[in-house]
Task: inverse folding
């Protein structure tokens, strides 16, 4: 009886922990949206996909922090690194220009339905 309770408890805890682990990975992946035929290969606007991301002076997490780009802020994208890991932006609300991580700031990617 005791071993059954332990097994059930372990299964319940595992089931509760799994969505937390998988949610982190899912949030880091670019979002896709299904669109009608004729709009294939369309890239949507860049958006902040976390609550906030640090704006930095260089494309490095060790560089000087210049400001914070919050979810919902409008911003301009000037360029990206070749691999897309960093995005050079200007926050339209604060005027701060710098690099943000491409892990958290990326465009919506559309998937075509045929």
Result:
């Amino acid at each position: 009886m005791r071993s059954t309770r332990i097994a059930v408890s372990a299964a319940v805890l595992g089931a509760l922990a799994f969505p937390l682990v998988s949610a982190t990975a899912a949030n880091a992946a670019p979002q896709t949206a299904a669109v009608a035929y004729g709009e294939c290969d369309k890239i949507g606007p860049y958006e902040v996909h976390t609550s906030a991301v640090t704006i930095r002076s260089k494309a490095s997490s060790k560089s000087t922090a210049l400001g914070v780009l919050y979810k919902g802020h409008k911003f301009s994208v000037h360029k990206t690194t070749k691999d897309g890991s960093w995005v050079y932006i200007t926050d339209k609300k604060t005027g701060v220009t710098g690099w943000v991580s491409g892990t958290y700031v990326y465009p919506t990617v559309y998937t075509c339905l045929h």
Remarks:
- Confidence is low (pLDDT under 50) at residues 3-26.
